[in-house]
Amino acid sequence: MVHKFIFDETRIVLDVNSGTVHLVDEMAWEIINQYPNLDLSVLYAYLEGKHSQEEINEARSEVQQLIKEGLLFSQDFLKGLYRPPENRVVKALCLHLAHSCNLACRYCFADKGQYYGASSLMSAETGKKAIDFLLTKSGKRKYVEIDFFGGEPLLNFNGLKKIVAYGKKQAAVYNKEIKFTVTTNGLLLTEEISRFLKNHKIFTVLSIDGRPRANDRMRVFPNGQGTYRRVLENISRHVSFCSEEDYYLRGTFTRHNLDFASDFLHLADLGFRYISLEPVVASPEKDYAFQPEDIPYLEKEYAKLARLLLNYQQQRKEIRFFHFEIDLNGGPCLIKRLTGCGAGQEYLAVAPDESLYPCHQFVGRQEYCLGNLEQGITRPQLREQFCQAYIYNKESCAACWARFYCGGGCHANNIAFNDSIFSPDPLFCRLMKKRLECALYLQVKNFKKNFCLNGEFENG
Amino acid sequence: MGKHIITVNIHSLQDTVLGRGCGECQTSCQSACKTSLTVGNQSCRQLKNQEPKKGR
C-alpha cells in the first residue's frame, strides 16, 4: 500500500508498510499511479507526448528498483501474526493528585476536575503506594513514567513534593528512572514551584488555548472571568526557568476558534517554542463540538500551520508543533506503532481513592475501573480488551495508510463517538491524516533544505 | 538518490521488529497531547543516542 499526496506542488509518496517516504517528480508519480501494470507499452501509451521513452524507462527503473528493495508497495508481513505480549507490565501511571480545580473550563471532560465524584486530593501515602506499584509491576523496564494530573495537580503541591522525593529514592533502589510530568493550568505556578519543577527535572505541560478571546471563552474562573492574563504571566515566568524542551504549551481548539493556526501564531509570537494544540473532545450536541462540515476548514488550518512552520524552519527559528514532529529515522518500532498509547495495558490512571483506570479519560466511570493499588488488576478481562485493541483488530485501521503513525486513535475518543474502542471516530481520523501529511511535507522540505535541492521535483 | 525519485529516509519499519520492541520509549499519551494520540512522533530510546541516518 502507498499513500500519495501533493502538498504545495510537492509530490510525496509514503510506502505505508516500510515507512519509507519518497519525493517524486511528475513522471514517477504517473508511473506509480499505474502500478501494478508497469508494462512499457502501457506506460508509453499513457505518457505519450509528455515524456520521451528514454525518460520513461529511466523513471520506471527507479520505481522497480525500490519495489525490489522493499521500499515501495511493500507487504505488511506482521499482519495476522502479531499477538500482544502475555507478560503484562505497567510502565506509566497518571496520578490524579487533585479531583478538584480552581478553574471551570467550559469544555472540561472531567466534570470541572471532580470526575463526577466528591472533591478530593490524593494523599502522599496513596502516591507512594502508586510509586511502589509502578516499580514492582514494571518488570525489566528501566524507564518508567509518572504524570501528575487532575483537576489541577498543583492544588496538591505538598503531596507532589513528597511523592517525587519518595519516587526518586525508591527508583534508585530498583535501578530504574522515573520521568515525572505535571499537567497544569498554570494558575498556581509561583516562582518557588517553578524552581522546584526545574530542579527536579519535571516536564511541564502548560494549558493555554492561544489568543485572549479564544482562551477566555472556554478557560474561565468559577465566576466566569477569563484566565488568559494571569495564566500567561505565570507560564511566561515558568518557561523562562525551563531548559530546552522541558515544557509544552497545550491548548484546545473548538468550533469557536476553527482558525486555530492564528492561536499557534499568537503563542509563537509571545516567544513560546513548544506548542501543542488539540481538537476538543465533545459530544456533538455541545455548541463548541466540531460538526462534519467543519473538517475541510480545519484541514486548511493544519496546512496553513505547516506553511507557518516551514517559514520558521527557513528562518532557522526552532518552534515546534507537537503533531508535526515526526522522526522518520529514529521513530518508534513497529510493535509500538501497533499498540498506540498503551492505555489499559502498560499505562494506567490512579484516582485519589486508589482505584485504577485505563487512562485519565476513564477515571470515575465505574464500568471501566480495572482494580486498585492494593489488589492490582481485579478485572483482567477488561484489561484484555484494551490489550487486544491494536490496529490489526480495528477494521478501519487495518486498511488505513496512517495506521503506523496514528496507532489507532484515542480509546476514550473512540468510545465517545462509537461506543467501542475498536472503532475509531472518522472525524478525528480525517484530522489525523491531514496532520500526518503536513508532518511528512515538513520532513521532505527539511530534507531538501539539508541536501540543497532547490526547485527540483516541484511543478513536475 | 535517483533522478526521478528521492528517498527521504532509509528507515524501514520491518527492520524495527527484530531487536526492538523493548518498551523503554515514552508512553504516547504521557507527552503533550493528553487526548489525541500520535505515536509517529515518539522517539526510540535505543536509537536516541545514535547518529541520525542520512537519506539515500
What keywords describe this structure?
heterodimer; A: 460 residues; alpha/beta; TIM Barrel; twelve-stranded mixed β-sheet; 39% helix; B: 56 residues; little secondary structure; 0% helix
What is the CATH architecture descriptor of the domain at 92-324 in chain A?
Answer: Alpha-Beta Barrel
Tell me the overall shape of chain B.
extended
Largest sheet of chain B: none
Average pLDDT value of chain A?
93
CATH superfamily of the domain at 92-324 in chain A: Aldolase class I
How helix-rich are the residues of chain B, as a percent range?
under 10%
Distance between the termini of chain B: 5 Å
Give the largest interface pair and sizes: A-B, 90 and 47 residues
For the sheet with most strands of chain A, the description reads: 12 strands, mixed
Helix content of chain A: 25-40%
Give an overview of the whole structure.
The complex is a heterodimer of chains A (460) and B (56). By secondary structure, chain A is of the alpha/beta class. Helices cover 39% and strands 16% of the residues of chain A. Among the domains of chain A are: 2-75; 92-324, Aldolase class I (TIM Barrel, Alpha-Beta Barrel). In chain A, strands 4, 5, 6, 7, 8, 9, 10, 11, 12, 13, 14 and 15 form a 12-stranded mixed β-sheet that branches. A 3-stranded antiparallel β-sheet of chain A has the order 1-2-3. In chain A, helix 10 runs parallel beside helix 16. The longest helix of chain A has 25 residues, at 426-450. The two termini of chain A are 23 Å apart. Chain B is largely without helices or strands. In chain B, 0% of the residues lie in helices and 5% in strands. Chain B has one strand spanning 5-7. Residues 51-56 of chain B have low confidence and may be disordered. Chains A and B meet through strand 3, helix 3, strand 6, strand 7 and strand 9 of A and strand 1 of B.
How is the secondary structure organized here?
The complex is a heterodimer of chains A (460) and B (56).
Chain A: E1 2-7, E2 10-15, E3 20-24, H1 26-34, H2 40-47, H3 53-68, E4 92-99, E5 120-121, H4 124-137, E6 143-150, H5 157-174, E7 177-184, H6 191-199, E8 203-207, H7 212-218, H8 228-241, E9 247-253, H9 260-269, E10 274-279, H10 295-314, E11 320-321, H11 334-339, E12 347-350, E13 355-357, E14 371-372, E15 376-377, H12 380-387, H13 395-398, H14 403-406, H15 411-418, H16 426-450
Parallel strand pairs in A: 4-6, 4-12, 6-7, 7-8, 8-9, 9-10, 10-11
Antiparallel strand pairs in A: 1-2, 2-3, 4-5, 12-13, 13-14, 14-15
Helix pairs in contact in A: 1-3, 2-3, 4-5, 6-8, 9-10, 10-16
Chain B: E1 5-7
